[in-house]
Design a protein that fits this description.
Elements (H helix, E strand, L loop, with lengths): L19 E13 L3 E7 L4 E7 L5 H4 L7 E10 L14 E12 L17 H6 L1 H4 L3 H23 L3 E2 L16 E4 L7 E4 L4 H9 L4 E9 L12 E10 L3 H19 L11 E3 H8 L13 E2 L10 H6 L6 E7 L5 H13 L6 E7 L5 E4 L1 H18 L6 E7 L1 H18 L10 E5 L4 E3 L5 E3 L10 H4 L11 E6 L2 E8 L4 H10 L4 H15 L6 E7 H8 L30 H7 L8
Parallel strand pairs: 3-5, 6-9, 11-17
Antiparallel strand pairs: 1-2, 1-4, 2-3, 4-5, 7-8, 9-10, 10-22, 12-13, 13-16, 14-15, 14-16, 17-20, 18-19, 20-21, 21-22
Length: about 600
């Protein structure tokens, strides 16, 4: 017999009754029923119940084991009584009567994080003892889901005619939207490598090299502020690039892979095949977000004309300022003062003075009546025009925000989500995808300068001619795939023409010399015959988070950092030794 096991802890069933077997695993829990011990033995595959009484030579040893001991058990498979069958586990019809036991790994002291049960524990404790946390059923299941998702992605990409190539981990720094992690060079004192924010330049060079359809499960490194759906240090993405393609070609190649993936791993949910194309400007107007949750049917609308010159002085005066507007958030079946007051309080909690509202009800004479402070100020004709525009009726409401869109859009988007959820309008058990297209190529920073708003390597719509006018009106061949309120994919058709690239970076404040310095390899390659190409990248961690129905991305990463970008288990980041600093010719200067 094998030194440790003849079967796994999920590998026995009623057909094995009477066999002598050997199992190894962790003691999940122990129950002492007055001289009869019951142990649940757990390994990667499942759980088997072990039974032992005073007549067994293993009894004395088993009495001493505790939860999370690693043991080897020899025994005989027995059928459980019908009344004791556990249909929830594959081994629920049998148990193993222990005849021998050996402790392979003891537990010292008390467990800082019990594995049995579904209690909540502080995340700092869970991350410090991640090796214990990973033994727990839910997290173990998530990590296995991730493994299977990656395997499925690879199979689907190969079947779609893509080839997998690896790109360097140590490379040069480049401005791609986030801070780089720098790596000092021992051989070249005073110079630094960088960990790649993404394989962006390399995958474009693969296209220049003539390989046509590339993919990679790529590690990416960005020094970013953490969020619930974003790791603050590193993450993995499905990286894709294709030659001789337009935007629609990329969409056509990607949709079957992503749709098939979600259908495979969430058969309990619907995955509609209709993926609309929504212009970025429309997404911000209708949903207040460039990653809208389309499970919620609410669309916001501009209603400025109904408040211009009205008796509601706040909005009327606001509209006299250039660049301002009033937007309405329809709220079907939200027509109660209690709900309206609650949403007004929500807006105040988000830093706004509040949200105006109107709700409609039947008057005593049977006609439709508008109620609320706004209705009294603007009068029945204007409220009726608003109701007709928003297609609302009895028992419905609408909420209103005004100003420059950039000052209230984000709050309006969050309010739309809350309204949809509280009124039961948002679908459940559904994944709704949408391509967000026509992103602005440039934006104005808080300091007033022009900078790239998205990926700096994307082709401007209209080419060089588009870059001769107002840069804030230039759209790029950039696109995102939104799913249920998350950005799942980002990509673009690439700028493969050196002259257009120089001009785009010039607008963003980078002279040609700086472009040559930062992107010299790619610019040089483009001068030797570059094909039109484009692609995208999907966040693996975020996709698995959606498939696992988790709200926190750390629940699907095996060894994540905490919110302060610390590895509590391994003690990173750590201080370098003086010897390491001398070897690298570095010195740590305290921040003043």
């Amino acid at each position: 017999m094998h030194a440790y096991r003849s079967h796994t802890c999920a590998g026995l069933n009623r057909a094995d009754a009477g066999q002598n077997v050997r199992l190894s695993g962790w003691v999940h829990r122990v129950r002492d029923h007055g001289g009869v011990l019951f142990l649940d033995l757990r390994d990667h595959y499942g759980i088997t119940q072990i039974i032992c009484d005073g007549d067994s030579p293993a009894f004395a040893a088993l009495e001493k084991v505790r939860a999370e001991y690693v043991i080897r058990v020899d025994g005989r498979v027995k059928l459980r009584d019908d009344s004791l069958v556990n249909p929830k586990i594959p081994t629920g019809e049998i148990e193993v009567y222990a005849t021998g036991v050996e402790v392979l790994g003891a537990v010292e002291g008390d467990l800082p994080l019990p594995v049995f049960g579904d209690q909540d524990y502080p995340e700092e404790t869970r991350l410090a003892y991640r090796f214990l946390d990973l033994r727990r059923e839910g997290l173990h299941r998530n990590i296995m889901l991730r493994s299977n998702v990656v395997r499925s992605i690879r199979n689907r990409m190969w079947e779609a005619g893509f080839n997998e190539f690896q790109t360097p981990i140590i490379t040069a720094s480049s401005p791609e939207g986030a801070r780089d992690f720098l790596v000092p060079s021992r051989l070249h004192p005073g110079k630094f490598y960088a960990l790649p924010q993404a394989p962006q330049q390399f995958k474009q060079l693969i296209m220049v090299a003539g390989f046509d359809r590339y993919f990679q499960i790529a590690p990416c490194f960005r020094d970013e502020d953490p969020r619930a759906d974003r790791s603050p240090t590193d993450f993995y993405q499905l990286d894709i690039e294709m030659s001789f393609v337009e935007q629609e070609d990329v969409f056509a190649a990607v949709q079957p892979v992503i749709q098939g993936l979600f259908e495979e791993f969430r058969p309990d949910c619907s995955v509609p095949a209709d993926w609309p194309r929504i212009a970025w400007r429309d997404a911000m107007l209708w949903y207040g977000s460039d990653k809208p949750d389309l499970r919620n049917p609410i669309r916001m609308q501009v209603v400025s004309e109904h408040f211009a010159g009205s008796g509601f002085a706040i909005f009327a005066k606001l509209l006299e300022q250039e660049g301002t507007e009033i937007r309405a958030i329809p709220a079907p079946k939200g027509g109660s003062r209690k709900f309206c007051d609650r949403m007004n309080a929500f807006a105040q909690s988000q830093g706004l003075p509040g949200m105006g509202y109107i709700f409609w009800r039947k008057a005593e004479d049977g006609s439709m009546e508008a109620a609320g402070p706004l209705a009294k100020n603007i009068g029945p004709e204007r409220t009726e025009a608003i109701r007709v525009q928003l297609n609302l009726g009895e028992g419905d409401a609408a909420f209103f925000l005004g100003g420059r869109p950039e000052t209230f859009e984000a709050v309006a988007g969050r309010a739309r989500n809350v309204i949809g959820e509280e009124l039961g309008l948002t679908e459940t058990d559904t994944f709704r995808f949408a391509w967000i297209v026509d992103f602005p190529m440039f934006e104005k920073t808080d300091e007033g300068r022009i900078d790239f708003s998205h990926n700096p390597f994307s082709m401007p719509q209209g080419g060089m001619e588009a870059l001769s006018g107002d840069p804030l009106k230039v759209h790029a061949y950039q696109y995102d795939l939104a799913c249920n309120g998350y950005e799942l994919i980002s990509g673009g058709i690439r700028n493969h023409t050196p002259e257009i690239m120089y001009r785009a970076f010039e607008i963003a404040g980078y002279p040609n010399s700086e472009v040559d310095k930062r992107f010299g390899g790619m610019v040089k390659a483009f001068k030797y015959g570059a094909p039109p190409h484009g692609g995208c990248a999907m966040g693996i961690d975020r996709a698995v988070m959606l498939l696992a129905d988790e709200q926190n991305i750390r629940e699907v990463i095996m060894f994540p950092m905490n919110q302060r970008a610390e590895d509590l288990m391994m003690g990173a980041p750590s201080e370098p030794t003086n010897e390491q600093l001398r070897e690298l010719r570095l010195r740590v200067v305290p921040k003043e």
